[in-house]
């Protein structure tokens, strides 16, 4: 989230976002943020939040993949708590169709254009076969070459945790 709550590990007082069903076995790279935070802390102790590091890293990732750049407003504060249930009720399902996604984002005050931008950013990296198998084997509105390339790593059954890129330009 915008407050880096996704970085928090579960504690005795809350179950966080890392282990929420929408994120488990999906969201990765925490060690990269830990490493950046350690370096920044060695130069500027207590000044830069993990939330700002995440925001800058997100922007830089988009730029590295050939997308646009933008000025990142800094000054976010890190969360001290997180909610697995909030994630499970607010993150749209990867199985939603276009109309459901538009409706889901509209409920949060976001336009279809904003939904496309946020969803497109989520194609950077990899996803588990479990989350897209139905589409590559059953839908006809997907580029056939791309679907075939995904099938090579994602069999019609099994291999749920196999990872594949959702964008042909992603490594």
Automatic annotation (TrEMBL):
GO terms, molecular function: heme binding; lactoperoxidase activity; metal ion binding
Keyword Calcium included in the entry's annotation: yes
GO biological process: response to oxidative stress
Uppermost EC category: oxidoreductase
Domain of life: Eukaryota
Residues that bind substrate: 92
Cofactor detail note: Binds 2 calcium ions per subunit. Binds 1 heme b (iron(II)-protoporphyrin IX) group per subunit.
Species annotation: Citrus sinensis (Sweet orange)
EC number: 1.11.1.7
Reactions this protein catalyses: 2 a phenolic donor + H2O2 = 2 a phenolic radical donor + 2 H2O
Keyword terms: Calcium, Disulfide bond, Heme, Iron, Metal-binding, Oxidoreductase, Peroxidase
Annotated S-S bridges: 129-154
Name used for this protein in its record: peroxidase
Chain positions recorded as Ca(2+) 2 binding sites: 123, 167
Residue numbers binding heme b: 122
Residue numbers binding Ca(2+) 1: 1, 3, 5, 17
Domain spans labelled Plant heme peroxidase family profile: 1-171
Required co-factors: Ca(2+); heme b
